[in-house]
UniProtKB/TrEMBL annotation:
Any Pfam family: DoxX_2
The organism of origin for this protein: Glycomyces mayteni
Keyword terms: Membrane, Transmembrane, Transmembrane helix
Cross-referenced InterPro entries: DoxX
Membrane disposition: Multi-pass membrane protein
Recorded superkingdom: Bacteria
Protein name: DoxX family protein
Cell compartments where the protein resides: Membrane
Regions annotated as coiled coil: none
Main location: membrane
Regions crossing the membrane: 32-49, 93-112
Length: 146
């Protein structure tokens, strides 16, 4: 739920700033990129937080090698993608790469939902909700790339 709240709040706050006179923030696509950047910064940082890291490692399907390294790699890629969304020259590529990353990470999310792996004591997100969230984030990344 925190990623959706972060995405929504950051996007709407950026748009509100545009309505209040910040000329650079009158473009919905830029506001969406800001919201996505905030969300991916949050989700990327979680990969390194001691409270969440062990649970994230458990999310990785057993057939994949070195789960801890994969969690680190995906966290770095999410944070790098978030930064890329904020640079006009890299925003389109960053948005498309983040969409591809979400597709690549879906097996871990699916596996975690099927195995009911909780994250920091919270109940596991049901597969239907997890899939809908992932589809929404992918669609928004594609929209941010246009």
């Amino acid at each position: 739920m925190a990623p959706i709240i972060t995405l929504t709040a950051a996007t709407l706050l950026a748009r509100l700033a545009g309505l209040l006179g910040a000329d650079a923030l009158t473009d919905w696509q830029l506001c969406l990129r800001i919201g996505l950047a905030a969300m991916f910064t949050l989700t990327g940082a979680v990969h390194f937080h001691p409270k969440f890291r062990a649970d994230m490692i458990r999310m990785i399907p057993a057939r994949l090698p070195t789960p801890a390294h994969l969690v680190t790699l995906t966290g770095v890629l999410e944070i790098a993608g978030a930064a890329g969304l904020l640079v006009p020259a890299t925003a389109t590529a960053a948005a498309l790469c983040l969409a591809a990353l979400l597709v690549a990470m879906y097996p871990a999310n699916y596996s975690a939902a099927k195995r009911a792996v909780p994250l920091a004591g919270s109940p596991a997100t049901p597969i239907g909700i997890r899939t809908a969230e992932q589809a929404l984030f992918i669609a928004l990344c594609v929209l941010a790339a246009l």
